[in-house]
């Protein structure tokens, strides 16, 4: 029976990385002793393209939805059984399949640990960052959850890409930018004062000038938390520079909306006790 299940493996064109493996080696790489092997083989066969065309077009999506649970059951020591299937699903032509994986990649990272995440999940994560907005939102909603699992040097690489979240397929998709502001508030704990000032500050200022009020309100909170974080850092010169820029960019803005933004940011800083009152004054 195990020999007959070899056909669940995808076409050679789909698995170019394993094309040098013999069928026997391929079979052994999928063997484990946690669940009945026939059950696992049946699950892995769900990604067979012929099944999607003849049995159920939604079958790949269901497979993607269940994958973190299967990975948890098998344990990280048996990730080699699922790795090829995961990569196949991550490059599926249906965006709903890729979206499903994007929403759960942070959970899978917890299951696999930092080494497997860095080697096998980060390339998939990077692909999702360049995908359709429907897929990118899954990554964005759990951006902090995923990045906190990476080593600092790897985490810093994503500072250069955060700006790209300001660009969406549809400019009216304001919820995307609102989610970005929410995630940036969480990301403040993961980066140094210099990184916050150099990379997150320009994005925050851009969000404060958004056309949609819901995005702006979250951004005021983001800026106030940024002021608090930079003020508590040593030395607090970044906080002073940030506050001077707030005055220059918004308080002295020739548009009334910019000056109003300054007032709202001051309100948030005051209400949340982000600064001592003498420093605020």
Walk me through this protein's architecture.
By secondary structure, this protein is mainly alpha-helical. It has a domain at 22-150: Alpha Horseshoe (Leucine-rich Repeat Variant), CATH 1.25.10. Helix content is 65%, strand content 0%. The protein contains 15 helices and no strands. Helix 12 runs antiparallel to helix 13 and helix 12 packs across helix 14 (256-271). The radius of gyration is 23 Å and the shape is elongated. Residues 1-20 have low confidence and may be disordered.
Specify the CATH class of the domain at 22-150: Mainly Alpha
Number-wise, the strands total: 0
Shape: elongated
Mean pLDDT: 87
Which structural class do the helices and strands define? mainly alpha
Q: Please give the largest β-sheet.
A: none
List the helices and strands in order: HHHHHHHHHHHHHHH
Low-confidence stretches: 1-20
The CATH superfamily of the domain at 22-150 is: Leucine-rich Repeat Variant
Helix content: 55-70%
Span of the ends, CA to CA: 77 Å
CA-based gyration radius: 23 Å
Query: What fold name stands as the CATH topology of the domain at 22-150?
Result: Leucine-rich Repeat Variant
Please report which band the strand proportion falls in: under 5%, 5-15%, 15-25%, 25-35%, 35-45% or over 45%.
under 5%
Name given to the CATH architecture of the domain at 22-150? Alpha Horseshoe
User: Number of helix segments?
Assistant: 15
GO molecular function, one term: protein phosphatase regulator activity
Keywords: Repeat
Region (Disordered): 11-30
Protein name: PP4R1 phosphatase
Structure summarized in a few sentences:
The protein is mainly alpha-helical and 281 residues long. It is built from 15 helices and no strands.
